[in-house]
Amino acid sequence: MLKFTALFVLLCAHFHVGLSITDGLLPNGNFEQGPKPSQMKGTRVTDPTAIPNWQLSGVIEYIKSGQKQGDMLLIVPEGQFAIRLGNEASIRQKLKVTKGMFYSVTFSAARTCAQEERLNVSVRPNTEAKDWGMLPMQTMYSSDGWDSYAWGFLAEASEVEVSIHNPGVEEDAACGPLLDSVAIKALPPPRRMRGNMLKNGNFEHGPYVFPNTSWGVLVPSNIEDDHCPLLGWMVESLKAVKYIDSDHFSVPEGKRAIELIAGKESAIAQVVKTTKGKVYDLTFSLGDASNLCEGSMEVEAFAGKVTLRVPYESKGKGGFKQARLRFVAVSDRTRVRFLSSFYTMKNDNSGSLCGPVIDDVKLLGVRNPN
Ligand SMILES: *[C@@H]1O[C@H](CO)[C@@H](O)[C@H](O)[C@H]1NC(C)=O
Ligand SMILES: *[C@@H]1O[C@H](CO)[C@@H](O)[C@H](O)[C@H]1NC(C)=O
């Protein structure tokens, strides 16, 4: 009997794991399964349950790749279909998750009009009031209009509902962002590794990156730290940083790194416990992502009150170097921070912003400084 119970518990545990969602696209996360013709009026979806796995509200259009808007050809990043979220429209999907686990949501979106556009990502249940991520889409970083964005949340229940909402109210009903490819990834808390006082110093723990997109994932600023999908880090200041992968970019170490794409307007930071008066070394790699981002770059590293400026000459073809900032801690908490001194643009006339890559950030106490 005892044996039987043990087996049963084991089976249950296994079954439970099997039930929660796996990393990657959500069911019909790329909207390839769409409405029946009877559930549409022109491009507009008339039935809130017409797109399998999703619950719709407000004015939503079902967009086919190659469809025209005025004289603009609409491109879809994955497959043949995407959706457009009109004024105040939203889509929602319920997911089985592991309660207490941190998840990141990644999706691809494109602006279609000149106006500023934003998307509001949220999850329910949520014990905090007014707890959502407002992701701005006013600047495009990729060459073809589409970018991927990420946001994170802690699952407060074993079933959650993720919602993506366009809070905009445009005069032109044909405006509103296009949305495609919604994915999720479970992110176990990063452990501090031996030989590094920083968490996730090599940026390996971060949001899902679509294997078929070559533009990385924007990790926005202006979201609460507990929704930052770049575990251990915060994105400070006004603009996003870009999470890049070694399949599509040149990365100094491992599979992931950060590209500082918005000059002094975007920075990443981490606060770490230090001992006042003790000497520390902050070391890191800086380079270029091999994405036609050419020119004189400079990374500014800050640790407490000390700053180091490290120049890097980029040919846009990949490569990196290492740098070290030695400092004396002035308090029991030190903020480590990185930003790019300049704006850089790709040399392909696309006007896309780009910048230096940082990776492999380590902080260690120095035993015998002199
Ligand atoms: C963001 O979305 C959530 C869920 O749909 C909603 O409750 C909230 O009011 C929205 N926030 C804004 C500012 O539109
Ligand atoms: C990536 O693209 C290939 C070829 O177009 C396709 O077969 C595959 O399903 C795509 N993978 C994902 C995750 O979208």
In the CATH hierarchy, what is the class of the largest domain?
Mainly Beta
Q: What Rg, in angstroms, do the CA atoms define?
A: 22 Å
Q: Share of helix among residues?
A: under 10%
- How big a fraction of the residues is strand? 35-45%
What's the β-strand tally? Answer: 28
CATH architectural name of the largest domain: Sandwich
Outline, from the CA principal axes? globular
Main sheet: strands, sense, barrel: 6 strands, antiparallel
Structural class: mainly beta
Q: What's the number of domains?
A: 2
Hetero groups: 2-acetamido-2-deoxy-beta-D-glucopyranose
Which whole number gives the mean pLDDT? Answer: 90
Catalogue the unreliable spans.
1-17
Give the SSE order as H and E letters: HEEEEEEEEEEEEEEEEEEEEEEEEEEEE
